[in-house]
Amino acid sequence: MSTELYDITIIGGGPAGLFASFYAGLRDAKTKVIESTNELGGALVHEYPNEVLRDVAGFVLITAKKLAENFIEQATMYEHAICKNETVSALEFDKATKIWTVTTNKGAHKSKAVVLALGTMEKVQTKSKLLVESLKKNGVKINEQGIAVDATMNAGMPGLYACGDVISKAKELNFISMATAEAAMAVNNAKKYVNPEADTFPGYSTDIRKDKPNYHTNPLAD
């Protein structure tokens, strides 16, 4: 079992999880990503890699595989811990220490906050029944559409957030642009939970991190 404590652990390496990972780096959060398969990208790489997407903000036409590559490149700008081929079977919250234990088929991980970016609830119920049972045991409300969250993307437990297709909403709203917005909200509120002195709003990306050595300047500048 890993004894190293992380600020935010993101479960799921699809678009929502990857953008959450990037945003957590933007917020200087010590972050871990746990992905059940051997490859990041979620449905973009596992289900329809060669399909052309037309409804992603900022792209007129882009293949799912290329979009996944962009998500991965963005997320890995930061030196996060990434665990592949690990299936989460249980979550447990210690009220005394306020620490989450994330149990997988390879061991356990410790985190102050957890962000669930699991894909559709239908898939989760098929592939991760033990996780669904664990969430319900913790008092997380789950219906046919997904995990119930509030306006902060909190899933009803201290430090537990969810984003993307796994949250309870109409299936018609399960698209990538929505998932990335939810991921940013989940991470910003998780950061505030982990560090109450932090602002929920991180500032605009054009202004922040300019004092950091890995800050990416405007690629269009001379």
CATH architecture: 3-Layer(bba) Sandwich
End-to-end Cα distance: 49 Å
What is the chain-wise order of helices and strands? EHEHEEHEEEEHHEEEH
User: What is the tally of helical segments?
Assistant: 6
Specify the biggest β-sheet: 7 strands, mixed
Give a short synopsis of this structure.
This protein has 222 residues and is of the alpha/beta class. It is built from six helices and eleven strands.
Features:
two-stranded antiparallel sheet, disordered C terminus, 222 residues, alpha/beta, 7-stranded mixed β-sheet, 11 strands, FAD/NAD(P)-binding domain
Report on this model:
- The chain has 222 residues and is α/β, with parallel strands linked by helices.
- The protein has one domain: FAD/NAD(P)-binding domain.
- Helix content is 28%, strand content 22%.
- It has 6 helices and 11 strands.
- Strands 1, 2, 5, 6, 7, 8 and 11 form a 7-stranded mixed sheet that branches. Strands 3-4 form a two-stranded antiparallel ribbon. It has a two-stranded antiparallel ribbon with strand order 9-10.
- Helix 1 runs parallel beside helix 3.
- Mean pLDDT is 90; it is low at 217-222.
